[in-house]
Amino acid sequence: MVKGSERSRGALCAGLAAAALIVPVGTSLMTSAAPAQAQRSAMPMMMSEATALQASLARESQRAAYSPATGVRFTKQQNVFLKSALAVDFTFRKATVTLPLFRGTAPGGASVYYIITDASDFNVARRMGLNYAPKMVHAAGTPGAQRVTLQGGVMSFAGNVDFSPAYQVTPGDPPTYFPPKSFRPGAFGDANWSSMAVLPSGLVLNVQMVQNASGAHDRLKAIDLRRRTVTMSLLDGMHDGKQYYYHLVTDVSADLPAVLEKGVFTPRLDKVPAYGKSRPGDRSALLGFSPVLNGRTDAGSGQDQGFSTSLRNGGIDPINIFPIPPRNSDASRSNNYSPLWDAHVSMWTPAAVAAGRVKRVVSLGELGRLVRSGQMTNAVINPPGAGNSFIAGLRSTRAIINCPVVAQPDLPPR
């Protein structure tokens, strides 16, 4: 296990313990102006909300709220983006992240427990040690988001998650093992649940409930309610020729991808705009990426990839292809990172399969070259529509996988 070493965690940050925010249900500062303008005018309220959330966590965990002085000191080689992480284990195929665990309330008032990974505001992200995801602002005011309230730093949700179903998947027939013969997600978000939580100020946070009275998230490995920590499994991926693009799957807008990625099936997420739009100037909270449908299935070869290898090998990482990492020091609106990944599933053509050319695709640039040469194309599951020039001209599969990126360590490839 490779972890960062903690700095001294002294007394709680001055002023946090007294912070609280009470806002009437239905109040939002985002309703009267364009998202970016409204977010700037709401800055004081956003920072008050962030302070209140940190204060509540600090009181209940008896651990200092995150700050650059109290956070874990990860090394440059470990390259951890999510600064509020308490520990990261980079072990191949067994990677995990330990995160602060917040307490909230479900409809009816029962306690639930959740994590926060991304914020739509740069200053809030820095304050809380989150990834900065400015594109998430486009989820506010849409049917795909969830309006929440705060009282005393405790978030009250409009929706809830049912963790009681038994996760189940039966692989299909070789050679692709896809589609599965049968499947069922292990958790279902109700009609009001979305991980895009819009606070009264209009701030959008990427939250995920990980435990409630019905059970726990399928990626939860350990939880400590007293210390308010949770350990979740991470998935690997490829970016710009490098392996170990470690990300956490939280929830997914469609049922089959939710099974393949072991996330909460959240139908409401499907209403977040806009599929096939991945440029910084697009009014879209989504960012395109490409899973492979029919990659090689020989796990351990260093060439395995795709839904096929995951189904054949007990749910191992499909090694999806990602375009960019988080850019948490870039406060500009041209920052294109979002944890809401718009799947553009690719597949090897029959001719490429017959010629034995199937290998692990390691970058978006390589994917583009393979598509242009006729060796890869749109997966058969992609519906009709316009191609996305950002993702090799492929069509959107119309499935959102919420994958906050945790780290991209500099380690030898496997």
Helical coverage, percent range: 10-25%
How big is the Rg? 20 Å
Low-confidence region ranges? 1-33
Structural class: alpha+beta
| Number of individual domains | 1
Tell me the strand percentage band: 25-35%
Number of strands: 32
Distance between the termini: 16 Å
For the largest beta-sheet, the strand count, sense and barrel status come to: 9 strands, mixed
Categorize the overall geometry: globular
Helical stretch tally? 7
Integer average pLDDT? 91
Give structural notes:
The chain is globular. The strands form 11 sheets. Strands 5, 6, 7, 8, 9, 10, 15, 16 and 17 form a 9-stranded mixed sheet that branches. Strands 3-4-19-18 form a 4-stranded antiparallel sheet, with no helix packed on it. It has a 3-stranded mixed sheet with strand order 24-26-31, with helices on one face. α2 (43-61) runs parallel beside α3. The longest helix is centred in the first third of the chain and has 19 residues, at 43-61. Residues 1-33 have low confidence and may be disordered. The two termini are 16 Å apart. The chain is α+β, with helices and mostly antiparallel strands and 414 residues long. β22, α4 and β23 (264-265) form a beta-alpha-beta unit. It has 7 helices and 32 strands. Helix content is 14%, strand content 25%. It has one domain (18-407).
